[in-house]
Amino acid sequence: MTSADQEGSEAAFCISCGDSNPIADGKCIDCLREEVTVVRGPSGPVKLERCVHCGAIPVREHWDQPTSLVEAVEQSAIGSVLIPEALEGVDVRVVVREEDKKNYVVDVEVTGSYKGVTVEGEAPVRVQVKNVTCQACSRRHGGYYEAIVQVREKGDAEVSDERAGEIAVMIEEEVRRVGGLSGTQSYLLKAEARHGGYDYYFGTKPVAKNIAKRIKDRYGGSLTHSTTLAGEEDGQEVHRLTIAVRLPRVMKGSVIGYGDEIVEVYGRSGNRVLGRTVPEGAGRTIEERHLDRAVVLEPKRVDIVYAAQGEGQILDPESLDAVQVRLPEGVESGGQAWAVKHRERWVVLEAAAPRDDA
Length: 358
Prior knowledge:
The protein contains six helices and 21 strands. The protein has helices spanning 3-11, 29-34, 69-80, 135-141, 161-182, 205-219; strands at residues 46-51, 57-59, 62-64, 88-100, 103-114, 117-132, 147-153, 188-194, 197-202, 222-233, 236-247, 255-258, 261-269, 272-277, 283-287, 295-296, 300-308, 311-315, 322-326, 336-342, 345-351.
């Protein structure tokens, strides 16, 4: 037998078991599979901390809100197993078995390719859920807050229920947004009606600053910041932030008397308010510094005596006299409308929906 024949003969057998058809490193498929541990589980149970109040779990340096407890259990099990770096095209699947609310067994199934050979393995992982209290919930239940946002209207006017509702929606959106970025550390502790406006108490300063800015961007007005010493934590002084938001008298949605005109405000641009005259529809831009001349008009519900082709009469709710007016579309005889009065002139804004008790 020649040396070439000897080499060919040796290459035709597995160097480990002697079987024919080696495919990599002189080894057959079975021996290659035996030399790699596809997945190795932990030596003991995995401890999963979960906030008993909000359901958050610790992820790296903050607390995060999982989609569900089962998802958190799955991720804890997957993160606890070891998979060789030499494995390519790795696919991980899990099967979760709940023993009770605090104990789960997760079968972690792994498939991949090792030196061109498809390999698979499975490791059972026991996950134990431990109920704890996260920092945010601990602070919230302890009444902790870092900032107050005070919302008032300029002058003696009160913040309307409608405006307060809009601000509540903004707060909910911002707390959820920041919470999604930084965990559950952001929260609204409470809201109190005070002095014709509202005080909002926040667990973190960044949320309070963002909320105050969003309110100002939407309605205009001004912001002032102040801090007070609230105590010490871990040897460091803790300062509490107060942001005073002063809403302007005139904002989007306001109806004002300006000179002899009645103007419906639809927006702001810098230090100007944008509106249109009613009922003429002519555009108006008024500088902020001139708004002290404006009179904010409160729409009143009025009865429609008759309506025909954009003209009609309303019943003056003060004098009970019939007043001739122009009528917008949708206003019908016998119905009601929203109207304002300025310098003895009534203007109808729009039809009013029927009262619930009508």
